[in-house]
Specification:
This protein has a 4-stranded mixed beta sheet. It contains 4 helices and 6 strands; from the N terminus they run αβαβαββββα. It folds into 2 domains: 94 residues, no CATH class; 38 residues, no CATH class. The protein is of the alpha+beta class.
């Protein structure tokens, strides 16, 4: 489950896209993005854009799956190693957070300045939104080094 800037933040390139990834269009319909492995494995030899999938709903706090929802595929993005260093064949579908909110979320911030300097500012913004929210598992990564 991701927000519209997920792909931009992590510089994940999309191979195809049917609609923009903005909040308004994402909230209007169930619009998943597939990684190339998913498309190759489950939709071989067809253009996946516009194809519809029935997927049982995940309900926060409930172990049983909910009723199936229809999702219209809008894009395919290049594979990333979400499955770990050996996750070359990892199959992934990314859905809009606005359509499938979960009580536990992660946040990523891309900055041109030193990442550690942003931590205090981000904590302040989060606290101003809800003082009961805590930041945990903070990871600061510097610029890519060649």
């Amino acid at each position: 489950m991701v927000t519209p800037d997920f792909f931009k933040t992590f510089d994940i390139q999309s191979r195809k896209a049917a609609v923009s990834r903005n909040k308004t269009s994402m909230a209007a319909r169930a619009l998943p993005w597939l990684n190339e492995n998913f498309a190759r494995k489950f939709l071989p030899n067809v253009d996946p854009i516009g194809k519809r999938l029935l997927i049982e709903q995940l309900i926060p706090g409930v172990t049983k799956l909910g009723p199936p929802l229809e999702w219209a595929i809008v894009g395919v993005y290049h594979n990333v190693r979400s499955g770990g260093p050996r996750g070359d064949d990892y199959v992934e579908m990314t859905v809009p957070f606005y359509q499938s909110p979960w009580p536990s979320v992660g946040m990523a911030v891309r900055t041109a300045s030193e990442p550690g300097a942003m931590t205090k500012s981000i904590a302040s913004v989060i606290s101003s939104m809800d003082s009961n929210l805590a930041m945990a598992d903070i990871k600061n990564h510097g610029p890519d080094r060649e």
